[in-house]
UniProtKB/TrEMBL annotation:
Domain (Pyrroline-5-carboxylate reductase dimerisation): residue spans on this chain: 172-276
Keyword Zinc-finger in record: no
InterPro entries: 6-PGluconate_DH-like_C_sf (IPR008927), NAD(P)-bd_dom_sf (IPR036291), P5C_Rdtase_cat_N (IPR028939), P5CR_dimer (IPR029036), Pyrroline-COOH_reductase (IPR000304)
This enzyme's EC code(s): 1.5.1.2
Membership in a protein family: Belongs to the pyrroline-5-carboxylate reductase family.
Protein name per UniProt: pyrroline-5-carboxylate reductase
Length: 280
């Protein structure tokens, strides 16, 4: 639970989003639902009327002007595609106040140094890799502060992101791997839920029941890892009784390369994040 000092800060902070896509919507909704940021204290810019319409339903202010977002915000979240980050930051640079604002970039692969080079000298920058479960206050984020970030800046960002899930601080060199694991990871989990549900349907379960059981099973397994502190291998072994159903299923997964496929998926997403960074 946030301290009284954090509640006072978060009640007054002005948060802006440049880009109103799914990740920005997830973060904005999470901040609002947590009670840390009022909807009226959030402004979002986007060129898409559809995105702005979705955001307006949250009660936030919307605009098509990126400069307006920067002028009106203390914390500016850069939530555009990596290939347009430089263009957007060059556009808003005249509005930047290094004393007033902190820039938080969630653009995959875009390095802190590249952000600092485009923004005015001394701009406070923090790079973050969040994920979409922030929408339901179950996100997983890692932040890395830039060279100009002040002592309290990471804590401000960590408090906000902590209100919508897990938030850790780490070296920037880790963020591409974070992208490959937790940033892209919800898609792997959704595919697993869908596949497990399909298996249930194949064996006679109604679709709605199969989906609920599959989703709840992954949720419960994740909670057991986080709350028991046990290694997932140990928890797996505890489910696999001798000559039982689960060990038979695990044998099939091993034969099909289940674990290797997930490792390869994280690696592929990490390498793609590095490619994106190199091209921007």
């Amino acid at each position: 639970m946030a301290s009284q000092e954090s509640q006072e800060f978060n009640r007054n902070i002005m948060v802006g989003f440049i880009g109103g896509g799914r990740m920005a919507q997830a973060m904005a909704k999470g901040f609002i639902n947590s009670g840390l940021v009022r909807a009226t204290n959030i402004v979002v810019s986007d060129s898409s009327p559809l995105a702005l319409q979705s955001l307006q339903q949250l009660g936030v202010r919307t605009t098509q002007s990126n400069k307006e977002v920067v002028a009106d915000s203390e914390l500016v979240v850069v939530a555009v595609k990596p290939n347009v980050v430089k263009k957007v930051l060059e556009e808003v640079s005249p509005e930047v106040s290094t004393d007033k604002q902190v820039f938080v970039s969630i653009a995959a692969g875009v390095t802190i140094s590249s952000l600092e080079q485009v923004l005015p000298q001394g701009t406070r920058v923090i790079r973050v890799m969040p994920n979409t479960p922030s929408l339901v206050q179950a996100g997983a984020s890692v932040l890395s502060p830039g060279s100009n970030a002040r002592r309290g800046d990471p804590e401000v960002v960590r408090t906000l992101l902590g209100s919508v899930g897990l938030c850790e601080e780490g070296a920037e060199s880790l963020l591409d791997a974070v992208t490959g694991l937790s940033g892209s990871g919800p898609a792997y989990a959704f595919a697993a839920i869908e596949s497990m549900a399909d298996g249930g349907v194949k064996m006679g379960l109604p679709r709605e029941l199969a989906l609920k059981l599959a989703a709840q099973t992954l949720l419960g397994a994740a909670k057991m890892v986080l709350e028991t502190g046990k290694h997932p291998g140990q928890l797996k072994d505890e489910v696999c009784s001798p000559a039982g159903t689960t060990i038979s299923a695990m044998h099939v997964l091993e034969n099909r390369g289940f674990r290797a496929s997930l490792i390869d998926a994280v690696e592929a997403a990490t390498l793609r994040a590095r490619e994106l960074g190199a091209s921007n």
